[in-house]
Amino acid sequence: VIAVRAIAKTYRTxxxxxxxxxxxxxxxxxxxxxAIMGPSGSGKSTxxxxxxxxxxxTSGEYRLAGRAVARLSDDQLADVRNRFIGFVFQNYNLLxxxxxxxxxxxxxxxxxxxxxxxxxxxxxxxxxxxxxDRVHHLPAxxxxxxxxxxxxxxxxxxxxxxxxxxxPTGNLDSRSGQEVMAIIxxxxxxxxxxxxxxxxxxxxxxxxxxxxxxxxxxxxxQVLDAG
Amino acid sequence: VIAVRAIAKTYRTxxxxxxxxxxxxxxxxxxxxxAIMGPSGSGKSTxxxxxxxxxxxTSGEYRLAGRAVARLSDDQLADVRNRFIGFVFQNYNLLxxxxxxxxxxxxxxxxxxxxxxxxxxxxxxxxxxxxxDRVHHLPAxxxxxxxxxxxxxxxxxxxxxxxxxxxPTGNLDSRSGQEVMAIIxxxxxxxxxxxxxxxxxxxxxxxxxxxxxxxxxxxxxQVLDAG
Lengths: 227, 227
Ligand SMILES: Nc1ncnc2c1ncn2[C@@H]1O[C@H](COP(=O)(O)OP(=O)(O)OP(=O)(O)O)[C@@H](O)[C@H]1O
Ligand SMILES: Nc1ncnc2c1ncn2[C@@H]1O[C@H](COP(=O)(O)OP(=O)(O)OP(=O)(O)O)[C@@H](O)[C@H]1O
Ligand SMILES: [Mg+2]
Ligand SMILES: [Mg+2]
Prior knowledge:
By secondary structure, chain A is α/β, with parallel strands linked by helices.
């Protein structure tokens, strides 16, 4: 479902030029579960933003569900993103003036669900991550880990075909982190493809494969033995 | 240096009322190194904000270096905070329009260092956390873990007497996390008092004591055996 060839990304702004990704190849089959690891600054979030069609590569090819993303217009790109991909941002990216419930409902509007159905789906997603008693709180009225769980609920509520999660458990205690992984694992068992950045080896071992980045290149692409 | 008695905090806004801290007692001696742990939403950041004089408790007493904080005016509170405490926020709280270097220099202005000395101190702090080649980047031009390390450099550059760090390594790979802990450990050996929130048991075991919160109360206050 994801096929990346020689993808590169160089940031150029003012007098700052950084080659965040030098050249990355990556194949992800439908239903696969891949962990992306690597030191701080090695290009993980940059790669995730390219996979999530939130940014365009400087060079290289990216095919999502067989379609060449580079040839899509901005509108088509947004359409692919909304219909196809659930994204958990490293900094959550919750809208500060919307409640937890409204933040989770927002992507569902795009999918055309009726208001009542949207509310029910969003309430179930928030209950699944343990926030049933915080649904009307604004992000500023939530703890760091609660905000992170709202971001996870928002990405999963619409049952996307592909989940791209950038550090989905970094601010969670181990029990809350395992609860989130159990939800992701369950959806992966149902066929959802998962690509996840993590610094935590225990979280990575929920996945079937670990891709390690170093200085913008793939250092290792290792299948984990089952069990 | 920190003496907290029966401190409580209830948030009341609109129709939301949450008792984040029910009643917490805490004593921290000068030069001590304490880890605060507990599930997501258990009140750790709320406690750190009270210890850092960024918020006032609903009830209870807090004495910092022997002075009753409740009786200080807002100006005196800001003065104590700037002269005494280095704070690492869970969401970094970097100023988006300042470079990494300018963010680290900002608290030093308050301390009256000359411009040349400030620049030198800030450059050393950023080099110590491995960001010598990112000093002119804006926060948006830095990775998540790089932003976190700028926040650590900013809190430590002025060699505060007390470091309050809310999850200082959550977004760092284990090597960068150990590098940050080595810096904090070194300053603690030199007499800096450290109170740190963490979800990571390995990071917590750099400390001498672990205080575990649950639902806004202290569940456990456990001294770790040396070595
Ligand atoms: N401004 C606020 N208004 C209302 N409730 C709040 C506010 N800030 C925090 N809370 C609530 O207070 C409780 C404690 O929050 P706090 O941020 O201290 O938790 P925490 O232990 O730091 O959690 P985490 O590990 O997820 O960061 C949470 O349940 C949260 O929803
Ligand atoms: N907008 C930008 N402009 C310039 N450089 C950038 C920009 N965004 C990121 N970078 C740089 O690109 C490199 C890769 O950043 P990226 O966010 O992908 O790293 P990461 O692997 O996600 O790190 P972390 O684990 O700390 O989140 C970093 O060195 C960073 O400084
Ligand atoms: Mg990142
Ligand atoms: Mg917190």
